[in-house]
Amino acid sequence: MFKILALNALILAYTQSVLYLDGIKLRDVQATLQGILLAACFLFISRSKPLKTLSKQRPLPNIFSLYTILTVILQFSVHFTCLIYLVHQAKLRIPESDATNTTKIKLSLEEDEEEHFEPNIVNSTVYIISMALQIATFAINYRGYPYMESLRENTALVYSIIGSSGVVLALTLGAFPELAVQFELIDFPHDFRIVLLQVLFADFFFSFLVDRICLRLCGEGELKEELVAN
């Protein structure tokens, strides 16, 4: 849970602060959908049940263990690299007139509130990848077995992750144009859509890989023999 909270906080902090200076922001309807999907994942994590048998592996002694710190840093490095790369690729495909408006820094709150929001490839890309990164964070960092229900056993969480991933995939592929219009997303060019999907899958793979490598290298302690015997 702490890894999920830390990674989601870092992703949101970057997308909603640093990128905001480049004129990249989310609409209320977009933030609402994102919040609903993430809230469902958090809900079903909290409903996970502990196993009835005591594991031979003891939990990490504190949240500042080497494994936790290392996996959070490395996973965020993967997410950050993919996010920067996709934003750069999106900016290469934005028209010059829109690019000028996108990079304009707002000097006052009133000016920002009065400005009409126009969806473009950069805003839509940031929205898609920020949702995908946070969903991947749940799927990778949910630690069930050997203490709690495994991901397969927590069917509600599995369906929530699959459903959220399906929404992101449908918006990326433009499967439901009316839904994309409702959430103020553009229809991605075919070549960029392929790049976007490749980066999203690569991000999930490498994030999963670094987490399992960190777990393997750092390891976890075992309970003392007398405790296991009891």
From TrEMBL:
Superkingdom: Eukaryota
Membrane topology annotation: Multi-pass membrane protein
Annotated compartments: Membrane
One Gene Ontology molecular-function label: P-type ion transporter activity
Stretches that traverse the bilayer: 27-45, 66-87, 125-144, 156-176, 196-215
One GO process term, biological-process aspect: intracellular calcium ion homeostasis
GO cellular component, one term: endoplasmic reticulum membrane
Signal peptide residue numbers: none
Keywords: ATP-binding, Magnesium, Membrane, Metal-binding, Nucleotide-binding, Translocase, Transmembrane, Transmembrane helix
Entry protein name: Manganese-transporting ATPase 13A1 isoform X3
Gene transcribed to yield this protein: LOC108733867
